[in-house]
Amino acid sequence: MNKTMNKHAGLWSLLLVLILLSLPACQVHVHRVGGGATGLGSESQRQYYGVFGLWRVNEVDVQRMASDLTGYEVHTEYSFVDFLLMPILLPITGMSRTITVYR
What we know:
- This protein is of the alpha+beta class.
- It is 35% helix and 30% strand.
- It has helices spanning 2-22, 62-66, 80-89; strands at 28-33, 42-50, 55-56, 72-77, 95-102.
- It has a five-stranded antiparallel sheet with strand order 1-4-5-2-3.
- Strand 2 and strand 3 (55-56) form a beta hairpin.
- It starts with a helix and ends with a strand.
- The model has no long low-confidence stretch (mean pLDDT 83).
């Protein structure tokens, strides 16, 4: 009985470690331009990367998203959707990030 309990405890520990290693750290970069956001709204786009982040697949133009504003904030983060895309993109060495401009 004691051997099976140790075996199950080891499997649960291994499963917990694998789950924790598969989740990236919560990471948000905030860049404030001018006086920052004034509460006029926001716009988001997803940036895709290949070869584990070394090759940018698409271009997100933050200046076009901010269009003629003098004050705004740019948030670059891993969103919930990015976490959901990870199991699909990682086997082909891809990843994604969400870029949001707050006006």
